[in-house]
């Protein structure tokens, strides 16, 4: 093949919109691009080559032939580029299609239509709604619809002739009230189609008409004094109202909007797409795309927006983005909101994409560490608790006392999911009188982190308190007082059901009992309890011995405490050299003390 000579071809290129295709020495398409001005865009590859990145220079070196197609507009160029990339899949282009097939809900075209799920679209079967990037959300929607409407779930051919001939018998679904028995002609098809009309509205995200329908039936029933029937319609209305309330994230007046946010680095682009109708997110997906060349962010986002709108069959007339699109779609408005409910939507989408990128980076770090089990556990904990950073250093607190006596608080520290015993600390409450767990937790948290701030020492990535909402609230109040609240994630764990509590959230989190992250939290809690109980017993034992020593002649409380602090046990006091005892007691008291100790030990023997 003749060597490609740009200087002989570039001057003759048209200055019009179009799509260009580069071929290599094997006459294989290696890159397809679009341009508002073909001459300027293609020429840019062959001028100032040293200014290109490595991938682009490598592409240019392989170009042996050029083809182009002139179109009417840059928008038409986008459509043609999208089609050709899917057809030829050049190695230097971003492949726009996901390798996943998402499920759809299909409303079948048959007498007494059914709702089924499918990953393959066949419009001869019925009308398809979706796709749903989250199958769990799709199943939740289906479950709610079947609670509202008695739709059949069987696959019987309910043609009028078959029903008239009595070919079918009602099944269990009829007897438990989930179906009205159309297979035996017990339900009129027109009445059934009214349900289907309501279902269609729900699948399109329009909840107002079904809610109005339930309200009309409720008022009509109560007007006939059929109060039980009215109550049933009211419960259906409430079910749909609650479902919509849980789904609505912004103002319901935001009717039909697509939201796209993108962040990128040298290697990858990360994109979040949300389909919003009446303030409800009907579809949401976050994904990554590997960059092949030094693509312009606006061009890349525009290409991906077109792909996702095509894949999700979106006809929204408004697109919210965090960076401007490189061209306008026909009849569609691109907005970068700076305030209001639409800005909240955009921020939510951007939060999703940033979290996704961070999660990918953490996973990559875990893989690079050789699949380290500790790293995997920390990643799981980070995701389960929705933390911003990996909890490499965790500190856990527990209070121990016996009917208010000898109270002690224990703090244990785990670094990289492993006990760091040199970092363990014990606290004896100074300001709390009696068995007050909340006040004790407040004091201990205050003392611990005030000291760390003063010493400019390392703060933990996560704080755990052993206890429910009360202990957690006391710990949070302490953090607020020293200005650390919100800077360090903190949770409480209640023993009975292993509930995880977050600040300012009345509903607990239940982590899977088999989860490695819950096991790590339990390990921290149990270790803090063990450490605290051991210290509490030692303290109680020492206090008992101090009180025993006070009974000896010439020994007061302060002297007894000095002896216990110096020797630790009664036996060590007795076995100690006279000179050492004299250092603590003085020469005058020592002989009598040793005699009393011998008598006391003989009685105990």
Automatic annotation (TrEMBL):
Domain UvrC family homology region profile: start-end pairs: 337-479
Pfam families: GIY-YIG, UvrC_RNaseH, UvrC_RNaseH_dom
Keyword Nucleotidyltransferase: no
Domain GIY-YIG: 15-94
Homology family: Belongs to the UvrC family.
NCBIfam families (UniProt xref): uvrC (TIGR00194)
Protein name: UvrABC system protein C
Underlying gene: uvrC
């Amino acid at each position: 093949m003749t060597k490609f000579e740009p200087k002989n071809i570039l001057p003759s290129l048209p200055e019009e919109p179009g799509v260009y295709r580069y071929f290599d020495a094997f006459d294989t398409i290696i890159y397809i691009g679009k341009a508002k001005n073909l001459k300027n865009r293609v020429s840019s590859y062959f001028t100032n080559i040293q200014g290109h990145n490595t991938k682009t220079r490598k592409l240019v070196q392989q170009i042996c032939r050029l083809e182009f197609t002139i179109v009417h507009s840059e928008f038409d160029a986008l459509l043609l580029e999208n089609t050709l990339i899917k057809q030829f899949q050049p190695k230097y282009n971003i492949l726009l299609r996901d390798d996943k097939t998402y499920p759809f809900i299909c409303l079948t075209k048959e007498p007494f239509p059914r709702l089924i799920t499918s990953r393959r679209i066949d419009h001869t079967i019925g009308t398809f709604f979706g796709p749903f990037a989250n199958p769990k959300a799709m199943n939740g929607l289906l479950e709610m619809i079947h609670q509202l409407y008695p739709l059949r779930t069987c696959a019987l051919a309910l043609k009028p002739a078959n029903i008239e001939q009595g070919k079918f018998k009602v099944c269990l679904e009829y007897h438990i009230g989930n179906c009205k028995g159309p297979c035996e002609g017990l339900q009129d098809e027109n009445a059934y189609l009214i349900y289907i009309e309501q279902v269609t509205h729900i699948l399109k995200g329009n909840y107002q008409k079904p809610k109005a329908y339930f309200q009309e039936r409720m008022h009509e029933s109560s007007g006939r004094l059929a109060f039980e029937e009215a109550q049933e319609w009211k419960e259906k209305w409430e079910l749909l109202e609650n479902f919509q309330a849980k789904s609505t994230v912004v103002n319901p007046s935001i009717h039909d909007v697509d939201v796209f946010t993108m962040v990128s680095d040298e290697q990858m682009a990360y994109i979040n797409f949300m389909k919003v109708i009446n303030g409800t997110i009907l579809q949401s997906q976050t994904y990554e795309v590997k960059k092949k060349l030094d693509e312009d962010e606006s061009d890349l986002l525009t290409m991906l927006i077109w792909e996702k709108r095509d894949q999700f069959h979106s006809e929204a007339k408004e697109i919210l983005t965090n960076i401007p699109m490189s061209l306008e779609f026909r009849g569609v408005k691109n907005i970068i909101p700076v305030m209001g409910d639409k800005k909240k939507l955009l921020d939510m989408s951007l939060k999703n994409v940033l979290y996704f990128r961070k999660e990918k980076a953490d996973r990559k770090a875990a893989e690079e560490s050789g699949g380290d089990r500790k790293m995997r556990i920390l990643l799981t904990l980070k995701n389960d608790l929705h933390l911003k950073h990996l909890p490499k250093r965790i500190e856990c607190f527990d209070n121990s006392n016996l009917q208010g006596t000898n109270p002690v608080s224990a703090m244990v520290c785990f670094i990289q999911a492993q006990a760091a015993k040199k970092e363990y600390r014990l606290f004896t409450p100074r300001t709390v009188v009696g068995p007050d767990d909340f006040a004790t937790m407040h004091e201990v948290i205050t003392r611990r982190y005030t000291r760390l701030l003063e010493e400019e020492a390392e703060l933990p990535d996560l704080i755990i308190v052993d206890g429910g909402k009360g202990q957690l609230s006391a710990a949070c109040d302490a953090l607020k007082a020293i200005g650390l609240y919100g800077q360090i994630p903190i949770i409480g764990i209640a023993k009975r059901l292993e509930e995880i509590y977050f600040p300012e959230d009345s509903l607990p989190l239940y982590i899977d009992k088999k989860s490695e992250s819950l096991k790590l939290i339990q390990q921290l809690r149990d270790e803090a309890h063990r450490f605290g109980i051991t210290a509490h017993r030692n303290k109680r034992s020492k206090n008992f011995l101090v009180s025993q020593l006070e009974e000896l002649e010439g020994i007061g409380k302060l002297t007894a405490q000095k002896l216990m602090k110096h020797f630790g046990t009664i036996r060590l006091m007795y076995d100690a050299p006279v000179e050492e005892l004299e250092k603590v007691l003085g020469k005058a008291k020592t002989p009598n003390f040793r005699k009393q100790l011998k008598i006391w030990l003989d009685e105990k023997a």
